[in-house]
């Protein structure tokens, strides 16, 4: 289970996920500086930490690294939800409470997701009873 990202890690990963291409520390820095005052070395350290934690891979390009996300934000979010649900002492109640917090749009997204999963992974058919019912002798 992934540990939740810290605020700055999330800000960096948001850019990596949104841009969906290899990025440099400089690119992330320049975008972050539109929102906050931050040093190059801070962003470099965060990106190195994300690499060490397995969130991004990196390749050398000249004197810099280019970083690429290892996974998607959707996969990260799903892993967090799965871990939270698995830790519940009453998973059914946790789901009911979670669904109760959802907006109508989120519930519709949930219904869409359930339809997709059911379509792509149909449940196995229930075993059939032998013809003639149980206990009927067959010739």
Structure, briefly:
The chain has helices spanning about 5-20, 25-30, 40-50, 75-85, 90-100, 105-120, and strands at about 55-60, 65-70.
What would the average pLDDT be, to the nearest integer?
88
Order of helices and strands: HHHEEHHH
| Inertia-based shape | elongated
Radius of gyration: 24 Å
Number of helices: 6
Q: Any low-confidence stretches, pLDDT <50, length ≥5?
A: 135-139
Main sheet properties: 2 strands, antiparallel
The helix content is 40-55%
Q: What distance separates the N and C termini? A: 56 Å
Total number of β-strand segments?
Answer: 2
% residues in beta strands: 5-15%
Could you say which structural class the secondary elements and strand pairing correspond to? mainly alpha
The strands making up the biggest β-sheet line up spatially as 1-2
Can you tell me about this structure?
This protein is mainly alpha-helical. Mean pLDDT is 88; it is low at 135-139. A hairpin with a 2-residue loop joins strand 1 and strand 2 (64-69). It has a two-stranded antiparallel sheet with strand order 1-2. Helix 1 (7-19) packs across helix 3 (40-52) and helix 2 crosses helix 3 (40-52). The protein contains six helices and two strands, in the order H-H-H-E-E-H-H-H. The chain has helices at 7-19, 25-32, 40-52, 73-86, 91-101, 104-120; strands at 56-61, 64-69. It is elongated and about 65 Å long.
């Amino acid at each position: 289970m992934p540990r939740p990202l810290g605020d700055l890690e999330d800000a960096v990963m948001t850019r990596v996920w949104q841009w969906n291409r290899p990025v440099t520390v400089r690119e992330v820095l320049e975008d972050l500086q539109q929102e906050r005052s931050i040093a190059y070395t801070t962003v470099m350290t965060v990106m190195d930490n994300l690499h060490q934690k397995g969130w991004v891979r990196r390749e050398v390009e000249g004197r810099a690294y280019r970083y690429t996300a290892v996974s998607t934000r959707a996969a990260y979010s799903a892993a967090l939800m799965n871990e939270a649900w698995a830790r519940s002492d009453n998973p059914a109640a946790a789901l009911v409470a979670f669904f109760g917090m959802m907006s109508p749009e989120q519930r519709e997204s949930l219904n869409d997701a359930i339809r997709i999963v059911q379509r792509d992974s149909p449940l196995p058919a229930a075993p059939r009873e032998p013809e003639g019912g149980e206990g009927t002798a067959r010739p």
